[in-house]
Amino acid sequence: MEFTPVLHAEWLKIRTLRSLVGGLAAVLLATTLFSALAGADSDGADFDPLFSVFFGVNFGQIAAIAFGTTAVSSEFRGGALRVSLAAVPRRGRWFAAKAVAIAVPVLAVGLVGGAVSLAVGRAALGVKADGLSWSEELRAVVGCGVYLTLMALLAAGLTAVLRSGVATLSILIPFLLIVSFVIGDMSGSVADVLPDRAGQVALHETWTGTLGPWTGLAVTGLWAGVALLAGVWSVRRRDA
Predict the structure, then answer these.
(1) What is the pLDDT of residues 25-35, one digit of tens each?
(2) pLDDT at 79 over 90
(3) What are phi and psi of 166, to 5 degrees?
(4) Which letter, b or e, does each residue of 43-62 get, where b requires 16 or more Cβ atoms within 10 Å of its Cβ?
(5) Which contiguous run of DSSP H or E holds residue 47?
(6) CB under 8 Å, gap of 24 or more: what pairs does 206-209 form?
(7) 3-state DSSP assignment of residue 206
(8) What pLDDT score does 213 carry?
(9) Dihedral, CA atoms, 19, 20, 23, 27, nearest 10 degrees?
(10) Distance from C-alpha of 89 to C-alpha of 1, rounded to nearest angstrom
(11) Per residue in 187-234, pLDDT tens?
C-alpha cells in the first residue's frame, strides 16, 4: 500500500476517536488559558514578558504528550495493531504514517494556540509587552507549534517502545513536573539539553544557557527523533 492511503487511514483513526479529538482541544485550551492567567500575574525581578505570554505551553505540552501517547497506545489494545499491520505489512511505513498523522494536527493546533496566546497574553500584560518586537513574537509563535509537536512525537516514540500509555505518562509527566524543575536552574549543565528546557528557549525574550532558540528546538527534535527511531525499531522487531 502506498504512503498516502496509509496516512489517510491513520488520520481517520485520530479524527474519529473522541479521546484524541479531546486531546487536541486540550492542547489549545491549556496553552491559551494558562498563558492568559500568567499574563495577568506578571511580577518579579526576572520577569520575561515573552515567556509570560507563552507560559501556558508548560501545560499545553502535557496535553500534547497525552495526545501522542494515546494515538500510539490505542494500537496495543484489543489487537488493533495486528489489524493495522495486516493492512500495511511494511511496518516502517505504517509507523511513519502514524507519526505524520500525529505531528500535523498538533503543529496546526500549536500554531493557533501560539497566536491566540500572543494575543491574549499581550492584552493581559498591557504596557509591559510594549518592548517585544514582531520578530520575537513570530519566533515564539512558530516555536510554540514546533515544540508542542516535538513533545507529542517524543511521547509517541516512547509509547511504541514501552507499548503502554500508562508507562509512558508515568515517565514523562513526573519528568516534566519534577525532575526538570529540580535541575532547571543549573544553567550551563545537563539541564540545558533536557528536551523541555532546550525547546522552550524559543519562548524566551532573553536566555543565559548554551543553546539559542533554534538550536534548542533542534536538541528537542533530536530527542524526538531518537524516540521515533527506537519506536520504529520496536514495531519492526517485536510481535504485534
Answers:
(1) 999 999 999 88
(2) no
(3) -65, -45
(4) eeeeebbbbbbbbbbbbbbb
(5) none
(6) 206/48
(7) coil
(8) 94
(9) -170
(10) 8
(11) 556 778 899 999 999 999 888 778 899 999 999 999 999 999 999 999
DSSP alpha helix (H) spans, the chain: 3-16, 18-40, 49-53, 57-73, 80-87, 91-125, 134-162, 165-174, 180-182, 195-199, 213-237
Instruction: Identify the burial level of 160 via C-beta atoms within 10 angstroms of its C-beta, where 0-12 means exposed, 13-18 middle and 19 or more buried.
Output: buried
User: Cell match 524559543: residue?
Assistant: 202
Residue reference for cell 509512558? 168
- Which pLDDT band, with edges at 50, 70 and 90, does 89 fall under? confident
Distant-in-sequence, close-in-space partners of 78: CB < 8 Å, separation ≥ 6: none
Cβ count within 10 A of residue 37? 15
With contact defined as beta carbons under 8 Å apart, do 118 and 188 qualify? no
Q: What is the pLDDT of residue 107?
A: 98
The proportion of the chain whose per-residue pLDDT surpasses 70, expressed as a percent, equals 92
Burial environment of residue 89 by CB neighbours within 10 A (0 to 12, 13 to 18, 19 or more): exposed
Chain length of the chain: 240
| Cα–Cα distance measured from residue 113 to residue 115, given in angstroms and rounded to the nearest whole number | 5
| Residues in Cβ contact with 118 at an 8 Å cutoff, skipping those fewer than 6 apart | 53, 54, 137, 140, 141
Sign of the Cα pseudo-torsion (64, 66, 72, 78, in order): negative
Tell me the CA end-to-end span of the chain in Å, nearest whole number.
19
